[in-house]
Design brief:
By secondary structure, this protein is mainly alpha-helical. The protein has one domain. It has eight helices and no strands. Helix 2 runs antiparallel to helix 3 and helix 3 packs parallel to helix 7. It is elongated.
């Protein structure tokens, strides 16, 4: 039954203009930062060849993007989670959801997992931007994977803190 809630929420998210605006805004900012970091790396590349144990392409370009993405997700996660219950009330589907043979935990977990899957797209697109640098340089794939996992876990934490208000008392009110 959780999968039904997840698919419904994902369908609703992808039909929502707010979600697309948030995703587009995040990608525009992150793409600008990515291109700025690549330009910076190309500027200092000659100087890095003279430094022993110099940071590589991954440390200079890709890792800062994950840090900036975490700050941006901190601001954008509440925008997406505010609508979780409000949209149920607006569409007048709250009574049907509450009378379904599922627990409140399953409802909240389904909404959480759907929003996390949507926000995982942001992390995936950042990783793809970083992996595009494989065409012209060497990357530390372990560092990228670790940063991606960290961003996903941080996003889950932001969601948990934001969805915390969706307990049984507030859903029934």
């Amino acid at each position: 039954m959780i999968w039904t809630i997840i698919t419904k929420e994902l369908r609703t998210l992808f039909a929502s203009p707010l979600a697309w605006v948030v995703l587009a805004f995040l990608q525009i900012i992150l793409a600008w930062i990515f291109l700025t970091r690549v330009d910076y790396f190309l500027t200092i590349q000659a100087q890095l060849t003279r430094v022993p144990n110099a940071p590589g392409l991954t440390e200079i370009v890709v890792v800062p993007m994950f840090g900036i993405a975490s700050i941006m997700l901190l601001m954008s996660v509440p925008l997406l989670t505010m609508r979780l219950v409000a949209e149920e009330r607006r569409n007048q589907t709250m009574a049907m959801l509450m009378s379904a043979p599922i627990s409140m935990t399953q409802i909240v977990l389904g909404k959480f997992l759907a929003t996390l899957a949507f926000l995982a797209i942001v992390g995936g697109l950042i990783a793809l931007m970083g992996l595009s640098l494989l065409l012209g340089g060497n990357l530390d794939l372990g560092l990228i994977a670790t940063n991606l996992l960290g961003l996903l876990l941080l996003t889950a934490t932001f969601l948990i803190l934001s969805i915390r208000r969706l307990d049984a008392d507030r859903l029934r009110a």
